[in-house]
Amino acid sequence: MAIGLLTLMAGLAIPFASPDIDAAPLPITADLSIAFEFVEKATGYDLNALIRDRLSEEVSTVPLDSCATIDIGIGGETLFGEPVACDDERYVFDLVGRHVIVSGVKRDHPLRDVEPGYVILNGVPLLVEDEERVIDPAPSPTWQFP
């Protein structure tokens, strides 16, 4: 009886190993620092988005809006930074699919597209996947009524 129990316990103690992973890790495809910039002018301010690509050391500016009033402390810091307001319209950075955007009330402003892989956006590591559908939706059932 004890030998049978010992044999059973030995059979349950089979070590399980992780399979070897042959696939190479995904590369870091983009490392971006993004920030808002207000440029003062005679009639108010110009709101711009500053984009710094830390891999290529390239810096670019995207004009977003012109406004008479600005508000920097509108609260609620998001994952990619603190939102700002330009004439009471709220602007915030976001990543939608493979597109880095500034989301506004009136419209979204595209900043840059990123390739699938690991993306670092304002220090936040993200995994961006390809936008192709992996699974097609199941066809709707056809009901047959007598």
Describe this structure in words.
The chain is mostly beta strands and 146 residues long. It contains one helix and ten strands, in the order H-E-E-E-E-E-E-E-E-E-E. The protein has a five-stranded mixed β-sheet with strand order 3-2-1-9-10, with no helix packed on it. It has a five-stranded antiparallel β-sheet with strand order 4-5-6-7-8, with no helix packed on it. Strand 6 and strand 7 form a beta hairpin. The longest helix has 11 residues. The mean pLDDT is 81.
Question: How confident overall, as mean pLDDT?
Answer: 81
Overall radius of gyration = 26 Å
Query: Topology as H/E string?
Result: HEEEEEEEEEE
First and last CA, distance? 63 Å
Question: Which percent band covers the strand fraction?
Answer: over 45%
Helix content: under 10%
Which ranges are low-confidence, i.e. pLDDT below 50, for 5 or more consecutive residues? none
Notable characteristics:
single chain, 146 residues, mainly beta, five-stranded mixed sheet, five-stranded antiparallel sheet, 1 helix, elongated
Q: What's this model, at a glance?
A:
8% of the residues lie in helices and 47% in strands. The chain has one helix spanning 2-12, and strands spanning 28-41, 44-53, 58-67, 70-71, 84-86, 89-96, 99-103, 108-113, 117-121, 124-128. A hairpin with a 2-residue loop joins strand 6 (89-96) and strand 7.
